Amino acid sequence: MAATEHGGSGFNIHPMDQFRVEPLFGGTEVHWYTITNATLWMALTVIAVSLLMVAGSRGRALIPSRAQSVAEVTYGFVRKMVEDIAGKEGMKYFPYIFTIFLFILLANLLALIPTSFSSTSHIAVTAVMAIGVFVTVTVIGFMKHGAGFLKLFWVASAPTVALRVVLAAIEVISYFVRPVSHSIRLAGNLMAGHAVLKVFAGFAGALGVGAVIPIVAITAIYGLELLVACIQAYVFTILTVVYLNDALHPGH
Predict the structure, then answer these.
(1) d(CA 191, CA 230)
(2) Whether 128 contacts 120, CB under 8 Å
């Protein structure tokens, strides 16, 4: 319940304010060249990814350090994902897929720091990554198979030609919808979770000493968001690998 316009009592919670993109160095207008809070936290994500992999691969000790263990487990996890779904042929594109996974994972985790900014909750960020994946796998498909890539849309196992045409139309539509669902899924899940956290934090601040229940709820939701941060990075990455496999092996 929002506070009344003339100073009445009540809760005044604005959960969507945390997603506002604002210039870092004053002003109110945001242009394509403006350095914003989104720019800052994406840059911090790139730095965190670089530090993790540099620290993890620098020593290469027989008994790994914590950083080396995290780097090795992450590397092995994504490598196995690519091998299992796209096969040995997909390993050629492993660096690209691994970079996507690390960026999304670290961006999601950094967004859980209080007063931070969630860059992956913005469709402008996730759409760029999703469109990049869409264009990449499409180019790979046509470069590798030429017109044979169109077999992806032709369901040869369908019993009649008429049904094959209908299914082909459905396949084409679903193919071009991929970047939309790919980007909205990630941004929507992150935005929803952070908005709920903000709502319960607002309740906790308004209730003061009686905020036991909201604080317990915040703790539970924070744990859930930690899980969501990892799962959404995994989902985005595994869909990327599935789309890559379609480009490498387009036949139904």
Answers:
(1) 15
(2) no
Residue 148 domain-assigned? yes
CA atoms of 226 and 204, how far apart (whole Å): 20
Cβ atoms 78, 98 nearer than 8 A: yes
Q: Are 141 and 246 in contact (CB under 8 A)?
A: yes
Residue 72 counted as domain residue: yes
Task: Give the pair of three-digit tokens for residue 49.
Answer: 């990814």
- Counted domains in the chain: 1
Residue 29 lies in a domain: no
> pTM, whole model, 2 decimals?
0.87
Dihedral sign, CA of 76, 234, 44, 199? negative
- CA-CA distance, 29 to 144, in Å (whole number)? 45
Residues with Cβ within 8 Å of 248's Cβ and at least 6 positions away in sequence, in order, are 86, 87, 89, 90, 140, 141, 144
| 7 located within any domain | no
pLDDT tens profile 27-81: 788 888 889 999 999 999 999 999 988 877 776 777 777 888 888 899 999 999 9
Residue-wise burial string across 196-223, b where 16 or more C-beta atoms lie within 10 A, e elsewhere: bbbbbbbbbebeeeebeebeebbeebee
d(CA 77, CA 98): 10
Name the residue range of residue 199's domain.
18-23+35-248
